[in-house]
Amino acid sequence: xxxxxxxxxxxxxxxxxxxxxxxxxxxxxxxxxxxxxxxxxxxxxxxxxxxxxxxxxxxxxxxxxxxxxxxxxxxxxxxxxxxxxxxxxxxxxxxxxxxxxxxxxxxxxxxxxxxxxxxxxxxxxxxxxxxxxxxxxxxxxxxxxxxxxxxxxxxxxxxxxxxxxxxxxxxxxxxxxxxxxxxxxxxxxxxxxxxxx
Length: 197
Hints:
It is a single chain. The chain is mainly α. It contains six helices and no strands.
């Protein structure tokens, strides 16, 4: 009986400790995000009204684009090549593993992947929920679509006219299909590994 009580106590302590760690990790993330948001606001809130209007948001986006270019355009040709993009993705993947790999085995299990998805969902909500009501309204959804369209133009507008022609749209579609294919392959591989065990 004493052993059962000891085991239950140990399990309870481990659960509380794990919960404390995850809460403190989320709190640290929240603090980092808030600090970053405050820094962006301080830098780009030109009219000093405490929020970013469309012009100020556009300036922030341009600065972010410039920082991204400086970080990933390693050959300095003013464009991000497929090789540079692949390197950036690998770096992002490594950072994701480093951040969410709580058991330290160098890869993400289902629980860790779920934690990463939840964090991504929260970031997405924070990015698009501009009125802070905890939901994405039709207006906010429309703005998000516009941002997505702008990113597509930025990436695939090879002739620089600010629009995607048929050929550029085809390139964008091919990249999207390739991404989905990789995602499905990864999901099938994961299901196969789970089935083998």
